[in-house]
Amino acid sequence: MSTIEDLLAADPSLLLVDDDAAFLTRLERAMARRGFEVRIAGTVAAGLAAVSERPPAYAVVDLRLEDGNGLDVVSALHQKRPEARAVVLTGYGNIATAVTAVKLGAMDYLSKPADADDVINALLATGEDKPEPPENPMSADRVRWEHIQRVYELCDRNVSETARRLNMHRRTLQRILAKRAPR
């Protein structure tokens, strides 16, 4: 297998698109230390502009951004540079969006929080070898908690509406919301 340096020798350009500034900064530093030439964007519009200006060889794009859907950036990148390798990151993973991301040209679909090694493994994996499973995947309890939090936010933090949509008793939901996130 080739080393990261060998794979990046041809074109190390990487576009990171995420509206979480702290996460974006950490990932930018980590990827730059690993040899990528990193550009960042905090919105779909900025991501589309970066793709239009100079399509990168690699991209890591958050699915849900404040001004739209990150899949628009993946689609634009695939149209401008079909051989580009993109990975979609999200805190709200589901099968339908994973399938859509792959159809639009993404190489992989990772759940947040993903570390730089997980991202590199996904970006550089070839069709023959699958990336290694993450060292510390989210527990089933954490995935459940993330889903409940997402629905709660989508219901404008209305406990009764969230409980109804999740088919759960309101008091049970209140207890879950009062606890800390599981690991």
Automatic annotation (TrEMBL):
Pfam families: Response_reg. Residues 13-127 form the Response regulatory domain. One of its GO terms (molecular function) is DNA binding. The modification 4-aspartylphosphate is found at D62. InterPro entries: ActR_PrrA_rreg, Bact_response_regulator, CheY-like_superfamily, Sig_transdc_resp-reg_receiver. Keywords: DNA-binding, Phosphoprotein, Transcription, Transcription regulation, Two-component regulatory system. One of its GO terms (biological process) is phosphorelay signal transduction system. NCBIfam families: ActR_PrrA_rreg (NF033791). Member of the two-component regulatory system ActS/ActR acting in acid tolerance. These data implicate that a two-component sensor may be involved in pH sensing and/or response. This is Acid tolerance regulatory protein ActR. It comes from Devosia equisanguinis.
